[in-house]
Design brief:
Elements lengths: L14 E6 L4 H18 L7 E5 L5 H11 L6 E4 H7 L24 H14 L1 H9 L1 H23 L6 H18 L5 H15 L9 H5 L4 E7 L8 H14 L4 E9 L12 E5 L2 H22 L4 E4 L3 H13 L4 E3 L3 E2 L4 H13 L5 H8 L12 H18 L28 H15 L10 E2 H14 L2 H6 L2 H9 L12 H8 L1 E2 L1 H14 L1 E2 L13 E4 L1 H4 L6 E4 L19 H7 L4 H16 L4 E6 L1 E2 L2 E2 L4 H10 L4 E2 L41 E2 L1 H9 L1 H9 L14 H18 L7 H18 L8 H8 L2 H17 L2 E17 L5 E16 L7 E8 L3 H8 L7 H15 L12 E9 L2 E6 L3 H20 L11 H4 L4 H4 L6 H4 L2
Parallel strand pairs: 1-5, 2-3, 2-4, 4-5, 6-15, 6-18, 7-13, 7-14, 8-13, 14-15, 19-21, 22-23
Antiparallel strand pairs: 9-12, 10-11, 16-17, 20-21, 21-22, 23-24
Helix pairs in contact: 1-2, 4-6, 4-20, 5-6, 6-8, 7-8, 11-12, 13-14, 13-16, 13-21, 15-16, 26-27, 28-29, 29-31, 33-34
């Protein structure tokens, strides 16, 4: 190895530190320690007086252990740029706060969140800035982001300049901007002015008190710097390191720059481990194969007490899946990448609460907040009680189509009695209490959405108060991510790291509610936190999850890099800020070329690691993917080919187990020696026309829906569908007939009364509210036409002697069923009759008709009555009417006798058409006998297989449970 010593008249040049292909990292570090030790001896420098600067902190223990193994004795002072600056901060003079520039405001702090606020406040002082923010808030916030990114780049690059050269650097940047402004006369004038402002704002932070300035004045006996690749990104810690080394070299201090470079395998190492690549089918296949390779390497490392395995985080979503698989397999992990707070449940506790507090918040926003697990009001006691209340509220909201969360509050008040239905449609009491309690919490945030602007500090105080009120604050304080959220948003009172500029900017900067929500989202997106290692105490970690650049030069027993496709590995993102191209080169800022070269050097060094495993899926959904072009470049550069990676997942053969069609029973079949299997599942206490129709169409559907009580949740969808129209029409007809006199009146009066009843019901059901009115308009447009058609039919119907008697009548018929045990089990036939009409004055000569309103297909109704014994609903209602006749008071003139007729009344904007059910009495009697026989058979243990056909299966919500689509005809037949 050739050693180049920099003197005052020599330019600092790198000394090659070769990393041979497949050679363990610890051996390379042992070579490094021996080289540095010999260099110290050659220059007459004691090792303990030498300062060694490493690129990342993770290499500190590696370098120290290598020195102890190879050299022994006194260690050099092995540091990174931040750790050395921190150890020397005692020598800095106390910083005197510089006067704030009236035009620029406080200097940059390199805190992205705070600096964006500072720029927003500084630009909002200007009239044009305020107007721009009001006219186009999104564009203004984008410009603020770009200004902060550019200023931070300039500050970091300036920090890598010696203090005596920074004046010249700022002058160079100003001259470059002036030249650009003079040459550009087209679009972008505002951006160029903001760039000039950002440059001056960045320069205002150069007050001679930057933390890294102490490195330039530190007098060490000798300097040693280590880099991973000769290309160093401007503004990085390595660029500060090289600047310090160059200054020391000019001063005659012995200086050594050791640059790690990938090298071909040594001649005596013909069996060097070459990287291998696996092509996977999809996301899940790639995650499983990556986890399998990691676990295989972990087993080998545990057996040999080797180093941990590195899992390179290129695709964060993929790595999260791999991590879940590894944790399930019992591996201990240390994640060095961290999580953005915006992806954590703790961050959602704040953002969901803000979303739910908006006056126009959707019901989904409210339910997301209540179901997040971060609310705990004392009024609800145990968490299970709160969960039940949330479930009741969700069911009610879905059933009634409540899309706007706070649409039930009247004029800023609590739950309005005028807007909440009563009776059968009433909100359950637990749901009512929960809604009211949530309303009280969001009222603490009501000033945010009042339309005015308030200081950010006052808004954050309101957010903190709301978090305390709903019980989320205490939970956040006990959660590691929650503590990070409170600190990132400056909600925590124990914030010892708060800068002087923070209270000034939060008191002076004014926002509205939408601005606060966007600011919270930005803060959580910019902030991260890391979990502590999964290993307890000093236990060894099996897997280290780390980015590519942090994995370089570190000893690992194996390296697994999933996501090595063209979209992740080597795909260059744009340099942040508005400064690009030649202007970046003139100012010494990072460019795409320097960033790409630095990443390529890290990639080449990582590929030299033994046990390097790369994975790439063939497609991302429907989008085909190819391996990264860097693999081909690496092969051309090294003259070596990637190996083919075998799938190391363990294959397990599982014997096939034939499954029969499910045939559930209420009673278990008898076993040997046992006379009866016993009643295992209860029969539903009530049998309705709908439930018995399910039993006739498909026994398994009856089992799932009415025995197990499985229900599919209604969707919170915008709009009004046919079912909503049916509910509305039933209420309108009931209201119309209860208001109308028995005596025949003029058709015009009846139409007017019908229209008035429809309008009243529309208002009572909330169909005239802003959220539902547009969707009800197609039905409302046909209101008068429907009224005319119905009144015309009604007058003809009444002309035959029929009169309205009852509407929405609830009838229950207790029926005794005999069990094998000799006991009788009571089951109630339950139904709500849409309407009963009578003809005659009562007594034995009275006639009755059961009318069922329908808004569906007329042809479908005609098809139902063509086979009377196959129609369940009207026959069921006729049977209930007969039972009511038998149990009613004989003196009641409106009691129902056995002379019952039945008809469906089909209603839509085209007309009102009666569909008569022939022989409804005979059908009702046969149906009652069928109900008794079928329920008795179920109690005796009859099976309930999935025998539905046609329409019964087409729209069945339990089709996925019975899996009838997967049975053959032979398997279906008993």
């Amino acid at each position: 190895m050739t050693v180049i010593v920099s003197t005052e008249n020599e330019v600092l040049s790198p000394t090659a530190w070769p990393w041979a292909q497949g050679r363990p990292a610890r051996d390379c570090w042992d070579d490094w320690a021996g080289t540095v030790s010999r260099w110290c001896a050659d220059n007459g420098v004691s090792a303990r007086d030498v300062v060694v600067l490493l690129p990342v902190g993770a290499l500190l223990p590696v370098a120290r252990q290598a020195w102890a193994r190879t050299v022994g004795g006194w260690l050099p002072q092995i540091e990174t740029v931040p750790t050395l600056a921190q150890s020397l901060d005692w020598s800095l003079e106390l910083k005197t706060p510089a006067p704030t520039n009236a035009e620029l405001g406080p200097a940059p702090t390199l805190d992205v969140v705070l600096d964006r606020l500072l720029v927003t406040q500084a630009l909002s002082v200007q009239a044009w800035g305020r107007q721009w923010a009001q006219r186009d808030r999104r564009a203004f916030e984008h410009a603020v982001t770009q200004v902060v990114d550019c200023a931070h780049l300039w500050v970091r690059v300036a920090q890598a300049c010696p203090p005596d050269q920074r004046v010249a650097y700022w002058a160079t940047c100003r001259e470059a901007l002036i030249a650009v402004n003079a040459a550009s006369t087209g679009p972008g004038a505002r951006e160029r002015l903001l760039l000039a402002w950002a440059l001056e704002w960045a320069a205002s932070s150069d007050d001679g008190h930057w933390a890294t300035d102490v490195l330039f004045s530190h007098r060490a006996a000798a300097w040693v710097g280590v880099t991973a690749g000769e290309t160093v990104v401007p503004g990085s810690e390595s660029s500060v390191m090289l600047t310090v080394l160059r200054q020391a070299a000019r001063s005659g201090v012995p200086t050594l720059w050791m640059n790690a470079e990938a090298a071909p395998a040594q001649l005596d190492d013909a069996d060097a481990s070459l990287p291998a690549l696996a092509r996977c089918l999809d996301f899940e296949d790639e995650a499983q194969q990556a986890a399998a390779h990691v676990l295989s390497a972990v087993q080998q490392a545990r057996a040999s007490a080797g180093d941990p395995v590195a899992l390179i985080a290129l695709d964060r979503s993929l790595v999260r899946r791999v991590r879940a698989l590894l944790e399930g397999a019992g591996a201990t992990l240390s994640d060095e990448t961290g999580w953005k707070l915006s992806t954590t449940r703790a961050g959602a506790a704040v953002t969901r609460m803000l979303a739910a507090s908006q006056p126009r918040a959707s019901t989904d926003d409210l339910l997301d907040w209540l179901k997040s697990g971060w609310v705990s009001w004392p009024e609800f006691g145990a968490p299970a009680e709160l969960d039940e209340a949330v479930a009741a509220l969700e069911t009610w909201c879905r059933r009634h189509g409540l899309l706007v969360a706070w649409g039930l509050s009247g004029h800023g008040r609590d739950l309005s009695a005028d807007l909440v239905p009563e009776g059968r449609q009433a909100m359950p009491e637990p749901a009512r209490r929960l809604w009211s309690r949530a309303w009280q919490t969001v009222q603490l945030l009501a000033p945010l959405w009042a339309g005015g602007r308030a200081p950010l500090s006052a808004m954050l105080a309101q957010v903190a108060e709301a978090l305390r009120d709903c019980g989320a604050w205490q939970v956040l304080e006990g959660d590691v991510a929650g503590v990070s959220v409170l600190k990132a948003l400056h909600l925590s009172t124990d914030d010892g790291g708060e800068t002087v500029a923070w209270p000034l900017v939060t008191q002076g900067l004014r926002m509205d509610g939408q601005g606060l929500s966007r600011w919270v989202d930005d803060v959580l997106e910019e902030s991260s936190f890391r979990l502590e290692s999964a290993a307890a105490g000093d236990a060894k970690v099996d897997v280290v999850v780390t980015p590519l650049t942090r994995a370089v030069l570190r000893p690992f027993s194996a390296v697994v890099m999933p996501g090595s496709d063209e979209g992740q590995l080597g795909a260059m993102n744009g340099v942040p800020g508005w400064v690009h191209g030649a202007l970046s080169e003139q100012m010494g800022l990072p460019t795409k070329a320097t960033t790409r070269d630095a990443q390529w050097a890290s990639f080449a060094l990582l590929m030299a690691q033994p046990g390097m495993v790369c994975l790439c899926r063939k497609a991302n959904g429907r989008e085909p993917l190819e391996p990264s072009p860097w693999f081909e470049r690496w092969s051309m550069h090294t003259g070596q080919a990637l190996g083919h990676l075998q799938d190391v997942r363990l294959m397990q053969r599982v014997a096939t187990l034939p499954m029969d069609m499910p045939r559930p029973r209420l009673r278990n079949p008898p076993t040997s020696g046992v006379a009866s299997g016993g009643l295992t599942l209860p029969l539903p206490a009530q049998i309705t026309a709908t439930s018995y129709e399910s039993l006739r169409q498909c026994p398994y559907r009856f089992f799932a829906r009415h025995v197990l009580n499985l229900r599919q949740l209604d969707e919170l969808e915008e709009g009004v569908d046919r079912s909503d129209f049916g509910v509305w029409l039933h209420a309108v007809l009931q209201s119309f007939h209860t208001r109308r006199d028995e005596v025949l009146g003029a058709k015009a009066d009846d139409v007017a009364l019908w229209v008035q009843a429809a309008q009243d019901v529309t208002q009572a059901q909330g169909l005239d509210r802003d959220s539902r009115r547009p969707f009800f308009l197609p039905f409302a447009a046909t209101l008068e036409r429907l009224a005319v058609n119905y009144v015309a039919w009604l007058h003809g119907h009444e002309g035959q002697g029929w009169r309205f008697a009852k509407a929405e009548e609830v009838v229950q018929w207790p029926m005794a069923l005999s069990c094998e045990s000799g006991e009788d089990l009571m089951v109630t036939l339950h139904g709500q009759l849409d309407r009963l009409d009578r003809r005659g004055q009562g007594g034995e000569d009275a006639a009755w008709t059961v009318i069922d309103y329908k808004t569906g297909s007329l042809e479908g109704l005609k098809q139902k009555v063509r086979q009377p014994l196959e129609d369940t609903q009207l026959a069921f209602y006729a049977a209930l009417a007969q039972h009511a006749s038998a149990t009613a008071d004989p003196g009641d003139p409106q009691r129902v006798t056995t002379a019952v007729e039945g008809l469906y009344l089909q209603m839509d904007e085209k007309g009102v058409t009666p569909v008569q059910h022939p022989h409804v009495i005979e059908s009702a009697q046969a149906l009652v006998e069928g109900v008794r026989m079928d329920l008795t058979r179920l109690l005796a243990g009859a099976a309930m297989p999935a025998l539905g056909e046609g329409v019964a299966c087409e729209y069945c919500e339990v089709r996925g449970l019975c899996r009838r689509d997967h049975w053959t005809l032979a398997e279906v037949l008993p």
